[in-house]
Write the structure tokens for this entry.
Amino acid sequence: MVERLSPRAILDKLVSFPTVSHDTNLPLIDWVEGYLASHGIEAFRHPHETDPAKAGLFAHVGPKVEGAVVLSGHTDVVPIEGQPWSTDPFEVVEKDGKLFGRGTCDMKGFDALAIWAMVEGQYRDLTRPLQIALSYDEEIGCTGAAPLIEAMTKVLPKGSATIVGEPSMMGAVTGHKGGTGFMVHMRGFEVHSSLMHTGVNAIMYGAKLIEWANEMNVENRAKTPDAVDATFEPPWTTVHVGVIEGGTAHNITALDCRFGLDFRFVPGESSDDWVARFKAKVAEVEAEMQAVVPETRIDLEEMFYVPALMPEEAGEAEALVRRITGDNAPRVVSYGTEGGHFQDGGYSTLICGPGDIAQAHQPDEFLTVAQFEAGERFMRDLLTELAG
Ligand SMILES: [Zn+2]
């Protein structure tokens, strides 16, 4: 008889792999693949398109038919550098009813429960299938989800309802904002600042784009949001610049200026429209720069794109989770998840997972034992539901 691990034993194992986004997640994927295989579950790997050190994984249990419930989690965690940890971040330490460790909350706790549920499901007589989808690179902009979803829909019978287990205190979360981020590189022209009319100061032209962000925030705030957008905090699209660098000396027009500019879109507004509007502004400023020195320019690099999760009208995933949890409160969140990608892929999607998002990414990150147990009860009830 092959050993069936408890959710806690699986969590201990997952946390022991230091799967920080910039490092490999393959040892974790190897372990999950082997553990599922030891229970006769065939798992499929989805290798990263360019980085051989990363892979996603998906699997299916139950009847080979469409309509599975999909449990979605990411395997990567945020770095620990510069954080004062009281315990080894890559070991689960239980203290005062809390499970400390990097990723316990975000989101290896849910991953452990999902892996556990897959194995339990394998030994139950399910009438509706269950699937698991484990991604990479979620923490660096949800970039692993879209290719993973595409790969799994080619190999597995298409699932219909996805539960994204990001920390929500096991509450049903039906929506979040979308987001996209750009690295903007202003390429100016250096002259002595006494002759600044003949140079192109990358910082000062960059300031025009940053001022545009300020204007958009004022404009957006003044709008009257629709019923869905009104449930978000704040109920408008925001444009934010969080990092900037540039320039060489106070008396030289800056040759370079780089800054990161991010949008967080309310679901009622089109991300494509916003990006088009931004690019039009970039073209306008670039034309002003080139009128002074033709070889100057602005380079844009898209760093990430996370589609919004739209609250669904009579959504299947929502109905399922509300039936199990008894949670009927309307709830949307401000953080992005892979849920928008699943919804774009044709799945009814909602967020429900153990733990408090306030704990995510923190030093001494923890998941309470009570939340982990609530997650296990949820999985047991889900399996009962799938057994019809
Ligand atoms: Zn997460």
